[in-house]
Automatic annotation (TrEMBL), chain B:
GO molecular function terms noted in the UniProt entry: transmembrane transporter activity
Pfam annotation, one family: BPD_transp_2
Compartment annotation: Cell membrane
Sequence intervals crossing the membrane: 30-49, 87-105, 111-134, 141-161, 181-198, 225-246, 261-278, 283-302, 308-328
Entry keyword set: Cell membrane, Membrane, Transmembrane, Transmembrane helix
GO cellular component terms, semicolon-separated: plasma membrane
CDD domains: TM_PBP1_transp_AraH_like
Membrane topology: Multi-pass membrane protein
Protein name listed in UniProt: Ribose transport system permease protein
Superkingdom of the source species: Bacteria
InterPro entries: ABC_transp_permease (IPR001851)
UniProtKB/TrEMBL annotation, chain C:
ABC transporter domain span: 5-242, 256-498
A Pfam short name: ABC_tran
Similarity comment text for this entry: Belongs to the ABC transporter superfamily.
Superkingdom of the organism of origin: Bacteria
Keywords: ATP-binding, Nucleotide-binding, Repeat, Sugar transport, Transport
Molecular function per GO: ATP binding; ATP hydrolysis activity
CDD domains, per database record: ABC_Carb_Monos_I, ABC_Carb_Monos_II
Classification via InterPro entries: AAA+_ATPase, ABC_carbohydrate_import_ATPase, ABC_transporter-like_ATP-bd, ABC_transporter-like_CS, P-loop_NTPase
Name under which the protein is recorded: Ribose transport system ATP-binding protein
UniProtKB/TrEMBL annotation, chain D:
Full protein name: Ribose transport system permease protein
Residue stretches spanning the membrane: 9-30, 36-58, 88-111, 118-136, 156-177, 208-228, 240-257, 262-282, 288-309
InterPro entries (UniProt xref): ABC_transp_permease
Cellular component annotations (GO), alphabetically ordered: plasma membrane
Keywords: Cell membrane, Membrane, Transmembrane, Transmembrane helix
Subcellular location, principal: membrane
Organism of this sequence: Kaistia hirudinis
Superkingdom per UniProt: Bacteria
Length: 327, 337, 501, 321
């Protein structure tokens, strides 16, 4: 093993907590542990647009790296450019927001399992009967559609559950809170809210409207976990899309470059643990193997840490501390 | 009352000296010359940091990277010259890619037919903008904001997320080359040819004139409705063309991609010397503006700046570049007030 | 001879404002027909209707015996009516040649405008009608107002019209160009065209018009053969009252104190090394042929053009880098600018806002404007200058040309500045008000103001100014005083290099 | 303010009323006092950001740096305050001053150096974004102090505090525009910078002040917004770019400057909020939502069009030659 591998991480967008943690985690995981000194990692941020990422990728391809890791602006629109990279002999791994181009690996959370388990949990919370709001995420984003459909798919099996309103949470607190607040005005009788975001915005909207807190699904941000743990009467389940997907992508790239056996399937699913207020006391029937941790302050909810911290923080092959992840 | 024998042909003032005339000539073109100098300066720095910048390959790559923006900005340029603004290109570009990716199929004939239909749709949508603006006397900003939303919504209805596919022949055209020049370069040549023709046509002159002084243009016989139909219609057409070209680069329909070109299309034009108040500037400046925006991206890449500093670097480079031109432009105005 | 143009009872209102109530005009081909009336009488509105730029509410018009109902300027042009608009119809970003042939460009087989052909045709046109020299390939925005006026005339002529309308086309022209236009109008009439001529300069009208029609308050009040009527009658028709005299009695109110002293003032290659003193109580005229540095002098003094040299104001050295520097309080300088549409008025804003723009502080108390005080200033000024506006809230751009000029004049008067730079302050102003403005100027001088006064009408300089400084090639050619101050002497000094002589 | 001279403003309110009527028909629950209250709170944020934007637009400019001024103030406030109220005493004034300073930089770039407003403020926005990322190392910030939360979601006698604050700001803005020399100068500069210059208006100072005000209100809104969400998050300013400009435009201002009023902007902010609040109730797909959104804006502004009202009485009067 001589020179470190030259690996580029092309990130289409840096404007949220998750992406920032993802970049920090990537940098930490090539500085220590098994990959220390093995990777020359360069991060390129594209200004949130497909065009910028295409241009950035073209620049990256011209500098002939060993591998490119891509958190993609589009599942489809980068394909011709990625194909070019593959044809140039570069290992390409898309992660988080993955691409459909066959020559690239796609490493992502299991977006089928996550909404299914969370919707199942909600149905159980409501005893199969009640009115819910559903977050549709961000218009045009593939994961949004997967989550929304995943929720609806499972809820359909419970005739007593009625979706009485949808809103676009856009993975940001403000829109989530405003969306739920608007819906509450028209439908104060809601019994549960299935968000794709922080969940805490929905809870805040309920509180502002003077409503009792209803069961909420959300993602495992620190703010969601702490809010659920600390709010009187809150019931939550949090799905996890770990920010260390970037580290996993780096590891995969190094393994492939090292000549280790390639994964059989180009599509690699990462299964993060769920967090729930009743974790340990409830198991999914749809996915019995899904691990559901109980939300506990100090263990997986950290009131003194940044609210935007994504949980869990570290993969199992390298120790990344909360400190490092929070920057 | 005064009586003097008129002495026709003799002008009272001293004729300007040769250097003064030269200066006048330069000042008249300052808004174009300065972006040119900016681009050259950027290229000089960029070229010193990367090999092969002064080759055809670089031209091919950068033109391919900038072409969607150039096409979108061509329409925007025409609208800005007229003194308007077109936000709806954002919706039209999305819609265009979505229709292409869902309708082209595999046959050459359907591809051709639908391409023409998309361009026609662009024209119709643009003309609708123009008609609303004229007949209801509404601000272009508001009308095109609304139609942007409507078009973007339609695109999302047709294709809720990126998808669809384009025929391989179509994609091959996008990445093809001829005589060493990539197809986007040929497109650029066509675009410039169109512009040098169009700006000399009566319609082209009238669009610029209307932006320069609407009332005078009207008094001279320009029909406000006709001019707005042309202006916004052309903008729609170029947005459609931008969409078609974009699909050759992305191979997909993208219902939300168009918005990414709205501000940059205005920025490219403004960097290229177009005034938002209409009447001044042209496509050459805009093309240079689009190259500048693209080269800034390349430059930031080769400067190997750490990731969080990248936006700062591109912002600062952009400001420095524009500051130079603004100062020169300002001093030229000042001297002639 | 039957009347070629017959407009009967034309009316036009703008909301509550009646621009025309009963306008009638009958004119023959081959004549110069003057259209007269005080500011706001409706002359421009009337010719805009003829030119298709405005649609009448009622009335009937025939041209050459045919019903003439045009819906836009293009139709009017096709029927042979071309107008030189008071507001001008030129495009700042096109060249002179492009302006002249705008909408009628000669086309190549590719349907592009043939630039060469336009330039040649422009040169030919200029030669045929003996135009003052203007380079056809210059951008219009680089031209002076007078030059623009000339281009506007060329543009109208290029259409070879049957009816040529000149709406105050001489108002910005210097004597020599005015002469040229008068001659041109006669020639065109002699060719059998109808020239409708609007002007507030009765002398011009008398020299070229065969007949006159007088409007007052939007209605025709009289029509005469020029030869058969005297000026006083016409003026009485226009104003609805007798006018005493145009020029006030001139009393010398000059004191020994120097208000403004200029040493070695230079502006690019337009103004070279000028020395000039303006005294308290004095009206100092500035004259010269078009383009010999008058406008640069005014702009430089007002801080609107870059200049070098030394300026002393009321005995103290001053650097004036911007109009704001110039306008500073009682020791300041105020300007009536040449270009009212681009430098003088916020066209979309009200008469009130325009009048008080430079003096907002005067009616601001504890940081807030006091509408009552403002209204008082505005109402007084409207009354003093007889500004004809529907209300102080009318948009300045919808005032008649002369009334726009009055607003600019009033705006300057409201400032505290006691040095007034008046660049053609009576341009487009009717005789009645002109007389009042001259009286006002002399009164101000008597109250200790110092006035620098340029006029495109030499007679005004002769009759109102105490002394006249004549510029030639950007240098002071002569200062004329007393009996020397005559039109003849001014022109001599302006055209013959006295220093060389 | 003379409403007759501001027809477009009047009509913006008519549009708003119409929209409320439609809302009442589509979703009766939306006309409840609680909903009004939550709408008013949301509108207040847009309204406050759009306040500065109104001044900039009237002065003939545009401020695209709003998103990251807002975001920077929000992030830095939570970062400095660590959830404590006490330090707000210096943090809030400091950040308001910083926002104002960014505006001053914008104003100088535009007014002194002649950089086109779009480019100047766009570049400043990008630089601020990068600056915040670099400064915080992307560290996600902490929660909003209680005092800020009170300002954003608290109530006094059932009345949302932020709406009270908005009303105060609206009064100040209205006074500034209608009753001060600065307001006069601003309209003049926006109508014609040349004429304003010739009239002795301090054009540079005026446009710098407008941008400064915009920086101030964006920073203020940013801090308040953390109170609404309970925390700051990156990207929280993004939605305010187009909404602030759209609110100004719907409120009757010409995007080219010289006209408009904050009174109109308020209607614009309310129209946009009611509309975004109403749309989810329609249960439409994302695409259909955008179509309806666009169509409603078009209809609202079309109703306000002078052309539409002009067409009717004029027809009768016209019987020509
Ligand atoms: N490059 C320049 N040098 C000197 N003066 C200029 C220059 N450009 C414009 N001006 C002056 O600024 C003023 C405004 O010019 P502009 O061309 O924008 O006016 P316009 O187009 O006729 O009016 P509008 O904005 O109503 O269309 C004019 O007086 C013009 O002479
Ligand atoms: N668009 C308009 N809106 C409102 N009033 C108008 C408009 N255009 C003209 N007017 C009014 O119509 C009247 C006649 O104006 P017009 O310009 O025809 O006068 P004029 O005779 O040409 O005066 P001048 O000698 O000053 O040029 C004026 O009172 C003017 O204010
Ligand atoms: O990439 C996504 C990130 O941008 C979003 O905010 O959180 C979930 C991730 O999948
Ligand atoms: Mg203009
Ligand atoms: Mg007139």
């Amino acid at each position: 093993e001589g020179k470190p591998y030259k690996i580029y991480l092309s990130n289409n967008f840096v404007g949220n907590d998750w992406r920032q943690q993802m970049e920090r985690v990537a940098e930490v995981s090539v500085k220590k542990g098994p990959l220390a000194g093995r990777v020359d990692l360069k991060i390129e941020n594209a200004e949130g647009t497909v065009q910028a990422q295409i241009n950035s990728l073209n620049n990256i391809i011209r500098s002939k790296p060993d591998a490119i890791l891509i958190d993609a602006a589009s599942a489809e629109a980068l394909n011709p450019t990625i194909k070019k990279a593959c044809d140039a002999g570069i290992v390409v791994i898309s992660f988080d927001q993955v691409v459909s181009e066959k020559c690239a690996y796609a490493l992502e959370s299991d977006w089928t399992r996550i909404p299914a388990v969370m919707a199942e949990w909600m149905a159980k919370q409501l005893n199969g009967k009640g009115k819910v709001f559903v977050d549709r995420g961000l218009a045009g984003a593939p994961i949004s559609a997967q989550l929304e459909n995943g929720y609806l798919e499972v809820l359909k099996k419970y005739p007593g559950i009625e979706v009485i309103g949808t809103y676009n949470g856009e993975y940001a607190l403000g829109p989530e809170q405003a969306g739920v607040a608007s819906l509450l005005a028209a439908h104060p009788e809601v019994d549960g809210i299935l968000t794709q975001g922080y969940g805490s915005g929905a809870i805040k909207a309920l509180q502002d409207a003077g409503r009792k807190v209803v069961p909420v699904t959300a993602f495992s941000y620190n703010v969601a976990a702490t809010t659920c743990a600390q709010t009187e009467g809150a019931a939550c389940i949090l799905g996890s899309n770990p920010a260390y997907l970037s580290s996993e992508a780096i590891k995969l790239a190094v393994d492939i470059l090292d000549g280790k056996p390639k994964p059989a399937d180009r599509h690699i699913l990462v299964n993060g643990d769920f967090l729930a207020t009743n974790g340990g006391a409830w198991t999914s029937e749809l996915y019995p193997k899904a691990v559901i941790q109980k939300i506990e302050i100090g263990k997986n909810a950290f009131p003194d840490r940044p609210p935007g911290l994504t949980l869990p923080i570290t993969p199992d092959w390298v120790e990344i501390t909360a400190e490092e992840a929070a920057g | 009352m005064t009586m003097i024998a008129s002495e026709p042909g003799e002008h009272a003032a001293r004729p300007p000296s040769a250097p003064a005339r030269w200066r006048g000539w330069l000042l008249d073109r300052a808004s174009l010359l300065i972006p040119c100098l900016m681009l050259l300066a950027l290229l000089a720095v960029y070229g010193s940091m990367r090999e092969g910048v002064f080759t055809l390959d670089e031209l091919n790559l950068d033109t391919a990277a900038a072409m969607t923006l150039m096409l979108a900005a061509t329409g925007q340029t025409i609208v800005l010259l007229r003194g308007g603004i077109d936000l709806s290109i954002g919706g039209m570009i999305s819609l265009g890619t979505v229709i292409a990716a869902t309708q082209f199929g595999d046959g050459g004939a359907t591809t051709l037919l639908w391409s023409v239909l998309i361009v026609l749709l662009g024209a119709v949508v643009g003309m609708l903008n123009g008609a609303l603006i004229t007949v209801l006397r509404l601000q272009p900003f508001l009308v095109t904001l609304a139609t942007w939303s409507i078009l973007a919504g339609t695109a999302l209805i047709i294709l809720p997320i990126d998808g669809g596919s384009l025929p391989s022949g179509w994609m091959a055209f996008g990445s093809g080359s001829w005589l060493g020049l990539a197809s986007p370069v040929w497109l650029l040549i066509l675009l410039l040819a169109f512009w040098f023709w169009f700006k000399r046509t009566r319609t082209g002159i009238a669009i610029k004139a209307t932006g320069s002084n609407e009332r005078s243009a009207f008094l001279s016989g320009v029909s406000p409705l006709a001019i707005n139909l042309w202006t916004y219609g052309l903008s729609g057409v170029f947005a459609a063309l931008a969409a078609l070209y974009l699909t050759t680069q992305t191979g997909a329909g993208s219902p939300t991609i168009g918005k990414d070109y709205i501000l940059p299309s205005v920025a490219a034009a403004v960097i290229g010397g177009i005034s938002l108040f209409g009447g001044r500037g042209g496509l050459v400046g805009t093309i240079i503006g689009a190259y500048i925006l693209t080269i800034i991206g390349n430059l930031v890449f080769v400067l190997s700046i750490s990731s969080y500093w990248q936006p700062i670097a591109s912002g600062v480079i952009l400001l420095i570049a524009v500051l130079a031109s603004s100062l020169a432009e300002k001093s030229s105005r000042r001297n002639l007030s | 001879m039957p009347d070629f143009l017959e407009a009967l009872s034309v009316a036009k209102r703008y909301g509550g404002i009646v621009a025309l109530s009963d306008a009638t005009l009958k004119a023959r081909s081959g004549e110069v027909h003057a259209l007269l009336g005080e500011n706001g009488a409706g002359k421009s509105t009337f010719i805009q209707i003829l030119a298709g730029a405005v649609r009448a509410d009622s009335g009937s018009i025939t041209l050459g015996g045919e019903r003439f109902a045009v819906r836009n300027p293009e139709e009017a042009q096709r029927l042979g009516v071309a107008a030189v608009f008071q507001e001008l119809s030129l495009i700042p970003d096109l060249t002179v040649a492009e302006n002249i042939f705008f909408r009628r460009e000669p086309l190549s087989p590719l349907r592009t405008a043939r630039a060469g052909a336009m330039r040649e045709a422009t040169a030919e046109l200029f030669a045929r009608y003996r135009f003052p020299a203007i380079r056809p390939d210059q951008e219009l925005r680089r031209l002076t107002l007078a030059e623009r006026q000339v281009v506007e005339i060329a543009k109208a002529l290029a259409r070879d019209p049957r009816v040529l309308i000149l709406d105050e086309a001489t108002s910005a022209l210097a004597p020599r160009e005015t002469e040229w236009l008068l001659g041109l109008s006669r020639d065109l009439a002699a060719e059998g065209k109808l020239v409708i001529y609007i002007s507030h300069r009765l002398g011009e009208v008398r020299r070229i018009a065969d007949r006159v029609t007088v409007f007052r308050n939007g209605a025709t009040v009289a029509a005469y053969d020029t030869a058969s009527v005297d000026d006083d009658t016409i003026i009485a028709d226009m104003l609805g009252r007798q006018m005493e005299r145009l020029y006030p009695e001139r009393r010398n109110t000059t004191t020994g104190r120097i208000a403004l002293s200029v040493k070695g003032l230079s502006v690019e290659n337009r103004l070279a090394d000028l020395d000039l003193d303006l005294r308290e109580g004095e009206v100092l005229g500035v004259a010269g042929l078009q383009g010999h540095g008058q406008r640069e002098l005014f702009q430089a003094l007002f801080g609107a053009a870059r200049a070098s040299g030394a300026i002393e104001v009321w005995g103290k050295p001053r650097t004036i880098r911007s109009p704001r520097d110039a306008l500073s309080g009682r020791d300041g300088l105020a300007l009536v600018p040449e270009d009212r549409r681009n430098h003088g008025l916020l066209l979309a804003k009200s008469v009130r806002e325009n009048l008080t723009l430079s003096v907002v502080k005067r009616f601001t108390r504890f940081g807030l404007t006091d509408p009552k005080r403002e209204a008082k200033l505005v109402d007084d000024m409207i009354a003093q200058l007889r500004i004809k506006a529907g209300s102080p809230e009318q948009a300045a751009g919808t005032l008649s040309g002369g009334n726009q000029q009055k607003v600019i004049f009033g705006k300057m008067l409201l400032t505290d500045a006691r040095i007034l730079l008046l660049y053609d302050p009576t341009r487009g102003i009717d005789v009645g008000t002109k007389g009042e403005i001259f009286t006002l100027m002399r009164d101000l001088a008597a109250r200790g103001y110092a006035i620098l006064f340029y006029s495109s009408d030499l007679a005004e300089l002769v009759h109102v100014a105490d002394r006249v400084a004549v510029l030639r090639y950007g240098r002071l050619a002569a200062i004329l005083e007393g009996a020397e101050n005559s039109e003849h002497q001014i022109l001599r000094a302006a055209m013959i290099d006295t220093r060389a002589a | 303010m003379n409403l007759a001279r501001h027809r477009s403003i009047l009509f913006a309110y008519l549009g708003l009323i119409l929209l409320l009527v439609v809302t009442g028909l589509v979703a009766p629950g939306f006309l409840s006092p609680t909903h009004f209250r939550s709408l008013a709170v949301l509108a207040a944020f847009i309204g406050i950001v759009a306040l500065g934007q109104t001044f900039v637009v009237i002065g003939g400019g545009i401020d695209l740096s709003v998103p990251w001024v807002l975001n920077a103030a929000a992030v830095l406030m939570t970062l400095f305050a660590h959830g404590q109220d006490a330090p707000l005493v210096w943090i809030v004034p400091l950040l308001l001053a910083a926002g104002t300073l960014v505006g001053v930089v914008n104003g100088l770039g535009v007014g002194l150096f002649g950089v086109p407003p779009i480019i100047m403020t766009l570049a400043v926005n990008v630089i601020l974004q990068g600056g915040i990322l670099v400064y915080t190392g992307g560290a996600p910030p902490a929660t909003a102090p209680a005092a800020i939360q009170f300002l954003a979601v608290g109530r006094i006698a059932g009345f949302p505090v932020i709406v009270l604050l908005w009303i105060v700001l609206a009064i100040v803005a209205t006074l500034l525009l209608s009753k001060t020399a600065f307001g006069r100068y601003l309209y003049a500069v926006g109508s014609s910078a040349t004429v304003a210059e010739f009239s002795g208006v301090p054009t540079l100072r005026t446009s710098v002040a407008a941008y400064a005000l915009s920086g101030f209100t964006a920073a203020l809104a940013g801090m308040l917004l953390t109170g609404y969400s309970g925390q700051a998050y990156l990207g929280m300013g993004d939605p305010y770019l187009f909404t602030s400009i759209a609110a100004v435009a719907i409120g009757g201002a010409s995007i080219l400057g010289g006209s408009g009023h904050y009174v109109g902007t308020i209607a614009g902010a309310l129209v946009l909020t009611v509309l975004t609040g109403l749309l989810p109730a329609l249960n439409l797909s994302n695409g259909a939502l955008l179509v309806v959104y666009g169509a409603v804006i078009l209809v609202t502004v079309a109703l306000a069009s002078e052309a539409l009202t002009d067409l009717l009485p004029r027809r009768r009067a016209r019987r020509i030659s």
